[in-house]
Write a structure and sequence with these properties.
The chain is an alpha/beta fold. Helices cover about 45% and strands about 15% of the residues. It has helices spanning about 20-30, 40-50, 65-70, 95-125, 150-165, 185-190, 195-200, 210-220; strands at about 10-15, 35-40, 55, 80, 130-135, 170-180, 230-235. Helix 5 (about 150-165) links the parallel strand 5 and strand 6 (about 170-180). The chain is globular and about 50 Å long. The termini are far apart. One of its GO terms (molecular function) is oxidoreductase activity, acting on the CH-OH group of donors, NAD or NADP as acceptor. It comes from Corynebacterium stationis. Keywords: Oxidoreductase. This is SDR family oxidoreductase.
Amino acid sequence: MSIPENQKVAVVTGASSGIGAASARLLANDGWHVVVAARRKDKLDALAEEIGGTAVELDVTSQESVDALAAQLPRVDLLVNNAGGAKGLEPLTETSIEDWTWMYETNVLGTVRLIQALIKKIEAAPDNSGLIINMGSIAGWSVYEGGSGYNAAKHGVRVISRALRLENHNIRTTEIIPGRVATDFSLVRFEGNEDRAKAVYDGQLNLVADDVAEAVRWVASLPNHVNIDRLELKPRTQS
């Protein structure tokens, strides 16, 4: 992987669309060399060419895939754990164990895999400047009907972020907590059903991916002695 010797490196997972892609663009504008990682390599290649970054195909549910990414990286100053998602909106008693498993593998264990694989490189960032940003959700703080599996998974991300802060790895750790954001999140949740996905956002005031990406960019721009423990953002009308 060819990266200029003195350029800071950010790794953004789930970067093929939505918040991940928007974050990669803003970080690149701030001077980071951004490694964009996700499963959809065709979209990653186009994004990497646009921002002057590097595209790496990544499946966060696969330890082999995560290890292969880590082996390619000469340095990591910032990890943005953005890969995640939800499936289904059924009552708890009707939910699919397969959907729960996917949500845990992607949101929780995927986050842990990336942290474990890259922590030594992040700790080695100059002047203790290493930073991990975990993409949480208001779903990790407030339970809603039909969201039990996703609520539980995002509560897990919340715990991961707090544990890292307590364990003091001489790095900074931030959980970003978005409310309702109009992306393809609901399209994944409803397995491509565009009508159901669109209904989630119709008639609502929503955040967009760039709003959350700006929070990522701002946290990453702060001096090394500043840690934002958690940053919650919602559309004005969401209480």
